[in-house]
Amino acid sequence: MKAFVEEGVHPQIIIRHIRSASSLAVKKVRELAVSFDINTPEGEDMLLKTASTALNSKLIATHQDLFAPMVVDAVKSLSQEADGLDDLRGMIAIKKIPGGDVRQSFLVKGVAFKKTFSYAGFEQMTKKFTNPKVLLLNVELELKNEKENAEVRIEDPEQYQSIVDAEWQVIYDKLDACVACGANIVLSKLPIGDLATQYFADRGLFCAGRVEDGDLKRVAKATGATIQTSTNGIFEGVMGTCANFEEKQVGDERFNLFTGCPNSLTSTMILRGGSEQFIAESERSIHDSLMVVKRSLKSQAVVAGGGAIEMEVAKYLKEYALNIEGKGQLIVNAFAKALEIVPRQLCDNAGFDSNDILSSLRRKHTQDEDGKWYGVDIENGDIIDTFVAGIWEPSDNKSNSLASAAEAAGVILSIDETVINPRSQDPGAATGMMGGGMADRSLSAT
Fold this sequence. Notes:
Layout (H helix, E strand, L loop, with lengths): L1 H5 L4 H22 L1 E2 L5 H15 L8 H15 L9 H4 E7 L7 E3 L1 E5 L13 E3 L2 E5 L19 H24 L4 E4 L5 H9 L3 E3 L4 H11 L16 E2 L2 E7 L2 E7 L7 E7 L2 H24 L1 E4 L3 H14 L5 H13 L1 H10 L3 H14 L6 E4 L4 E4 L6 E3 H19 L19 H13 L1
Parallel strand pairs: 2-12, 6-7, 7-8
Antiparallel strand pairs: 1-13, 3-12, 4-11, 5-10, 6-9, 10-11, 13-16, 14-15
Helix pairs in contact: 2-10, 2-11, 2-14, 3-4, 3-9, 4-9, 10-11, 10-13, 12-13
């Protein structure tokens, strides 16, 4: 659109026709989109292929057969609830464990988190339960030191002992309440001290303190428990449950696993790899795939990737522009030409001649009625039916991209003037005037 601005076309005319072209492009994408039902084998296959497409250009592309089903299973578990997909980041956790082979990564249909800091007596605890009662707390279960400048005036040693006994009685009352409610597992966001750890171990309970807030919320969501801020009045209705709980060794770390949860919304992916950098890149790749599958589940419609949808929309806009009189025809044509940058860039990235491939694509989309899904074949440097090849994208993603790009262009074109702070001609101004002045005075004094 820069050429039209330089030639003096009014920005409002350009914006109006950009928005018109964007609306037509979005409408065409929705017409071309292929709907699917996620409850059928064909729908499941489409989700797997969209997840694989998102992983194609990533570092873990050679492990699509492992990660694509994991991503689909994790996201599909969220779709069981009306607004489950909206909190995808909170409900699907990704835990990274350096070491081992990437093929050792696995999905936990439930909650898994790394063993927290533990005190003496932790190893004596029961590490495996079937159908346990889970109590979640936001309570500190340890003896606390007095605050600074605390002062207690006593007249004889017996009074001091009564104060110490009262402190111990407070912590014992909390621990007795946790045991009396019938809980088998006690998790707290705040510390659980050595006294409480040994107390629970002696009574066959499992406890963990300093549990991360996100992990505690996932456990609450999965087990149906409610986080308590007091140990008073605990009843069975605020506790959760799961089919199995165990502490399991994964690599060099120990993990607490809750599986068979009644609310199967949460999932945890355990990623393995040879280095932290590889695992960090794997996490980013899986995050992209999760977002793509989430969008596919919401729209339940896909379009072909590889530049096919851009070429088909560009062809449609060029044909539509022939019916427009005046400058609008040129602007819509420019919008259509801009869409061809996507397949052109794919060719350049793959190291192929973009001019030859784009010419073949234009000819295929214009002359062949069945050529609407033809895009760039980056493996052979040719064109291919990308829909048949399983290169798919959620239709909502493509529609949002077109609409957002048009809005961004409109905002930029509507700017009349920009104010720029000119660079000072004085080289010493950037480093501060005071230092330079002092130096000048000292030189003149000598």
